[in-house]
Design a protein that fits this description.
879 residues; alpha+beta; Rossmann fold; nine-stranded mixed beta sheet; elongated
């Protein structure tokens, strides 16, 4: 933006080469060709086909595709179908999520699509806002959305709501004079109106300075387009895991195949073994279980008022270490509320928050009802109940006065019926006062409200406890000190006065010799439940940071009330500090621009933090996309923030974020459980085959037995763990580090458990084969030992940190059902004669079966002892 806020109206008109009659139609068309349409441009969109194909770019997926093709070639249709379904399912889900994300810029474009009254050739006409050009003169009216950035040249009580762009919760009083600051932030450019903001009061005329992508809205769109969306930690780990598994698998399969060839075994036989081992070694259920776990987490989060738009975001939420939250509408209601009243020389506290007319007063004085009555009558706004929710039509400050009166049982409509307004002197930013005149039973009264210091200059008397007396110097000092005291608490203070008019008094007399009544102090208050939510974040090791476009004093007061620690800095201070050095010491950022929010998030990410950013306005959109987790408000949020977000709060409640973090941690724990079980089992299976070949033993499993174990006896229980109830004390742990591998702390599962399984199975196989010389029977014992060992490990995986008995060993009915089904399948293929030839099995005695089951439980016993000891040490260290 050229610094038009520093230029006079005449300088602006001259620089833009326009006039008070506007542009001519021919000049407007010429400029349209030069500057382009006043619209948000779209970057080159990725085609749906390319988005779908990109879902198969992971190395893990490549290996699975190869496994599917090989399985089909070998006639293993069941295995191929299962893998193929998993691939397609993941591709469809990923495609849907990415395709939705492409709608972000379309939402911005819809915001800019308006009709505008423009002056061209000296005449007013309505045109599509996309045809506006720099130099056009536009007419501004209450309730309209501003179509482009423009310099004001004429105003009448003009106020705009810029919360969606600057974060300022109150309407901004506009002006036409110049602003001398060299580096004014958007909130300080009071002689400029911005595209996408709304006129809440008054009217005016402005000359357009910037259109399309050159507006502040357009710059935000550009930031969205150029801000790179990063992979989540889980996505990165799965990508690395896929690469690692592919290399290891190929190496082992090559060794197995080569060993068979060297020994003189049939080439086809060992090729089948090598392929089967590859299928067993690759955890093809991993993508599916990750998807299932995340999908289950999403359903739970919706019930707790958090809608997840992207599956991996569930896991990222669980590892969040910092929540950067907007103040207005997120920590607060975005509803001005009277908190303190000064009347009859007393301070009265007012309870309740927002526009809900429920609350009480800490005291009642004789003059209090009269003070509230003045606030309700000197008022142009309305309180309405829409769809079960109270809202204000008009100015939020006036709305707060209506609500405070309603809390005392004073209804604005009833008051107006008895006190008919007959005249008024409108508020202006220069006068800082508003006066209305009312007829009550034939008598006329003027009621005034305004800035207390200004109002006092018009007062000669004061009302105290229902009696009127002269306003003394001591009274004035006391009132001004109380005004300062309220202001120090970040309250916006309004003073009230009245006068009974004589019949001879005219309009010029309405504001002379007034009687001062009192003051009301208001603020956009924090939500009642947010303080507890902030405390929960602190216990969970999550830092809460407030980032707002509001004033520093207001932000500090809200932060103090909510218990948000850290020092406060303003946008100006931010420009001259080493943020990378100080970012962890700051808890509040005030008067910031959208660019500042990106800078703050990047500084936190450099410190290794996983950052969540909440917001509702257009100004929050780039930061939401840059953050690891972007959280939009569902009720007050703009379409843009919702489209670029990873998560939407359906109730705009900060507490829902904490609930979502808990769900995210639980989902990641479940993925770890699945990982622990599947990798433990797969490593054990590979080690058994690998060592048997290395020691010159016959194969302890046939090809079909390897596939059966892989698809049924370890696959089904592993999938059931995706729906496992969450581990205890999830929110009492510190967030895991961003670079923490998924296998951290799982050595007892993925190293020692496979070693135990390998030792037991090879010992059983060797003993049975050498004592009976029956290879089929020895292989059957190996098959059952592996199957039951893995089923025991499935129950041990109910918790990777605590004893499974403490977590509730049979609490997951899906796991119980999966294990029972696996047991039935394993017994069926051993003891049903017609199935034995297909699965190369041989029936064993009940005594032998019980012996196998008993030995297979050793791994479970080891894991439970290890977890019990470790959890006790962890508890002792905390205390």
């Amino acid at each position: 933006m050229t610094d038009f806020y520093r230029k006079t109206i005449r300088e602006t008109i001259e620089e833009l080469k326009t006039s008070e009659n506007g542009l001519s139609e021919s000049e407007a068309q010429a400029r349209l060709q030069r500057y382009g349409y006043n619209a948000i441009e779209e970057t080159q969109r990725i085609s749906p086909f390319r988005i779908f194909i990109s879902q198969f770019a992971s190395p893990l997926i490549w290996v699975l595709i190869a496994a599917t093709a090989i399985s089909l070639a070998l006639g293993e249709k069941t295995d191929a179908i299962v893998i193929g379904v998993i691939l397609v399912l993941n591709a469809i889900i990923g495609f849907v999520q990415e395709y939705k994300a492409e709608k972000a810029i379309e939402a911005l474009k819809r915001m800019a699509s308006l009709k505008t009254i423009v002056i061209r050739d000296g005449k007013e006409k309505e045109i599509d806002s996309s045809e506006l050009v720099p130099g056009d003169l536009i007419i501004l009216k209450t309730g309209e959305k501003i179509p482009a950035d423009a310099r004001l040249i004429e105003i009448y009580n003009l106020q705009t709501q810029e919360a969606a762009l600057t974060g300022e919760s109150l309407p901004v009083d506009k002006m036409t004079g110049i602003i001398s600051s060299d580096k004014a932030v958007l909130g300080e450019m009071r002689n400029i109106v911005f595209a996408g903001t709304i006129i809440t009061n008054g009217r005016g005329k402005a000359v357009i300075t910037d259109t399309g992508m050159r507006t502040q809205l357009g710059k935000i769109a550009h930031m969205i387009q150029t801000t790179k969306a990063e992979m989540t930690p889980l996505q990165k780990q799965l990508k690395n895991l896929g690469r690692w598994l592919g290399i290891i698998t190929l190496a082992i399969c090559a060794f197995v195949f080569a060993a068979g060839v060297v020994k003189g075994e049939p080439i086809l036989k060992f090729f089948l073994v090598a392929v089967s081992l590859a299928v067993a070694a690759i955890p093809e259920g991993l993508p599916a279980v990750v998807t299932i776990s995340l999908a289950i987490g999403i359903k739970k989060m919706v019930r707790r008022n958090a809608l997840i738009r992207k599956l991996p975001s569930v896991e990222t939420l669980g590892s969040t270490t910092v929540i950067c939250t907007d103040k207005t509408g997120t920590l607060t209601h975005n509803e001005m509320t009277v908190r303190k009243i000064f009347v009859d020389e007393e301070v009265i506290n007012v309870s309740g928050s927002g526009y809900e007319p429920n609350g009480s007063f800490s005291g009642h004085t004789k003059t209090l009802p009269f003070l509230l009555k003045i606030g309700a009558l000197n008022n142009d706004s309305e309180l309405e109940l829409k769809e079960g929710r109270y809202c204000i039509i008009g100015n939020p400050t006036e709305g707060a006065l209506i609500v405070s009166a309603a809390k005392a049982g004073l209804d604005k409509n009833m008051l107006e019926n008895k006190n008919r307004r007959i005249d008024e002197i409108q508020f202006s930013s220069e006068r800082k006062m508003m006066t209305t005149v009312h007829d009550f039973k034939g008598n006329h009264y003027s009621y005034a409200k305004g800035a207390p210091d200004i109002l006092l200059k018009h007062c000669r008397h004061i009302e105290v406890n229902g009696k009127t007396r002269l306003l003394t110097k001591h009274d004035r000092i006391k009132i001004l000190k109380m005004n300062e005291h309220f202001a120090e608490q970040a309250l916006r203070v309004i003073g009230f006065a009245y006068k009974k008019l004589k019949k001879s008094e005219k309009k010029d007399d309405y504001e002379k010799d007034l009687v001062f009544v009192g003051m009301q102090g208001m603020i956009d208050p924090p939500r009642d439940e947010v303080k507890d939510a902030v405390a929960k974040c602190e216990r969970a090791g999550i830092k809460v940071v407030m980032i707002t476009g509001d004033f520093k004093g207001t932000a500090v007061a809200i932060a103090k009330e909510l218990g948000i620690p850290g020092k406060a800095v303003s946008g100006d201070e931010l420009e001259h500090m080493d943020l990378d050095r100080d970012v962890l010491d700051i808890g509040v950022y005030a008067r910031v621009n959208p660019e500042h929010k990106i800078r703050i998030i990047e500084a936190l990410k450099k410190k290794g933090h996983i950052v969540a950013m909440t917001g509702d306005g257009v100004n929050d959109a780039p930061a939401l996309k840059r953050a690891d987790i972007g959280i939009a408000m569902g009720v007050t949020g703009t379409d843009v923030t919702k489209e670029v977000s990873d998560m939407i709060l359906l109730d705009d409640n900060f507490t829902s974020i904490v609930n979502a973090v808990e769900e995210g941690r639980g989902v990641y724990d479940n993925i770890r459980k699945f990982f622990a079980l599947l990798i433990s089992c797969n490593i054990g299976e590979v080690m058994i085959i690998f060592l048997s070949i290395l020691f010159g033993l016959p194969l302890p499993l046939t090809v079909i037995q390897i596939l059966l174990i892989n698809l049924v006896t370890d696959g089904l229980p592993a999938v059931a763990l995706g729906a496992d109830p969450f581990e205890p004390y999830a929110m009492e742990r510190k967030p895991r580090r961003k670079d923490e591998p998924i296998y951290k702390g799982l050595n007892h599962f993925i190293i020692y458990s496979p070693i135990i399984m390998t030792a037991i199975v090879l010992a059983l196989f060797y003993y049975m084969y050498t004592t009976t010389s029956n290879l089929a029977k020895a292989q059957t014992v190996s098959f059952l030992a592996i199957a039951y060992f893995e089923m025991f490990i499935a129950f041990a995986s109910r918790s990777t940190r605590y004893s499974s008995f403490r977590a509730g060993i049979f609490k997951n009915r899906y796991l119980v059902g999966a294990v029972l089904l696996s047991v039935i399948v394993s017994l069926a293929v051993v003891y049903i004669p017609m199935l034995q030839p297909y699965f190369d099995t041989f029936p064993i005695s009940v005594k032998e079966l019980l012996g196998v089951i008993l030995l297979s439980s050793i791994g479970f016993i080891y894991l439970e002892i290890h977890k019990t000891i470790s959890s006790r040490k962890e508890f002792a260290a905390k205390n």
